[in-house]
């Protein structure tokens, strides 16, 4: 967020962007609360988890979408596109802010190296590829570590 404020030309524009951001968050929170109330009202007499319609609690909103607008062509796909769009937007923000921290705080302030724009661009892209590779490795290795920890627990217990 700070990088967005720093990119604006004046303090007045930064304050205005904070005001717009705050109003958007309030509107979005109200919108989410209304969505939650609609789902709660739809399943007030029937729990989809107990009825075995869903297996996990976080599947309640997708099943609500399927049951209410699933008969309209394209609506479930629009819902999925919205979820993916929100996830990619958040991922983009994280990658962008991490790149800024690497360039502004580590390279310029700690290492104190002045890079050409071409080299800085390569460094940012390389660090982005490294972050994606690290997250993919973590998602694969977390299961291996979990199995290893469980195996070690049984191996070290005394009977």
Automatic annotation (TrEMBL):
GO MF, one annotated term: symporter activity
Its topology with respect to the membrane?
Multi-pass membrane protein
GO biological process entries: sodium ion transport
Specify where it is mainly localized: membrane
The protein's matches in PROSITE patterns, at most eight in alphabetical order, are given as: NA_SOLUT_SYMP_3
Indicate the transmembrane segments per the record: 16-44, 78-102
Query: GO cellular-component terms in the record?
Result: plasma membrane
Q: Does the keyword Ribosomal protein apply?
A: no
Protein origin, superkingdom: Eukaryota
Q: Per UniProt, which keywords does this protein have?
A: Cell membrane, Ion transport, Membrane, Sodium, Sodium transport, Transmembrane, Transmembrane helix, Transport
Mind telling me which PANTHER family this protein's record contains?
Answer: GH19970P-RELATED, SODIUM-COUPLED MONOCARBOXYLATE TRANSPORTER
Q: Which family does it belong to?
A: Belongs to the sodium:solute symporter (SSF) (TC 2.A.21) family.
Name the UniProt record assigns to this protein: Amino acid permease/ SLC12A domain-containing protein
Q: Which organism is it from?
A: Glossina palpalis gambiensis
